[in-house]
């Protein structure tokens, strides 16, 4: 079976979901404002930079 090659990051306080693909592409779902995307990205940036 094929695998879905993503890291799924969910914020519990909102309906925001960020999908980080193996190809380094990032897709966000549920961010109504650009600012909210940047806040979520700042939360996981240090973890992502290791890879």
Write the layout of secondary structure elements.
Layout: E1 6-10, E2 17-21, E3 26-29, H1 34-49
Antiparallel strand pairs: 1-2, 2-3
Characterise this structure:
The protein has 51 residues and is an alpha+beta fold. Helices cover 31% and strands 27% of the residues. The protein has one domain (6-49). It has one helix and three strands. The protein has a three-stranded antiparallel β-sheet with strand order 1-2-3, covered by helices on one side. It is globular.
Secondary structure tally, helices: 1
Specify the biggest β-sheet.
3 strands, antiparallel
Indicate the percent of residues in helices. 25-40%
Overall pLDDT confidence: 83
Structural class: alpha+beta
The proportion of residues in beta strands is: 25-35%
Low-confidence blocks of residues? none
Coarse morphology: globular
- The CA-CA distance between the termini, in Å, is 25 Å
The count of strands amounts to 3
Q: Order of strands side by side in the largest beta sheet?
A: 1-2-3
**Gyration radius over CA:** 11 Å
Provide the succession of SSEs: EEEH
Number of domains: 1
């Amino acid at each position: 079976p094929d695998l879905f090659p993503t890291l799924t990051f969910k914020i519990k306080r909102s309906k925001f979901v960020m999908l980080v693909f193996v190809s380094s592409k990032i897709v966000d779902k549920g961010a109504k404002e650009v600012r909210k995307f940047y806040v979520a990205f700042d939360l996981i940036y240090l973890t992502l930079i290791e890879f």
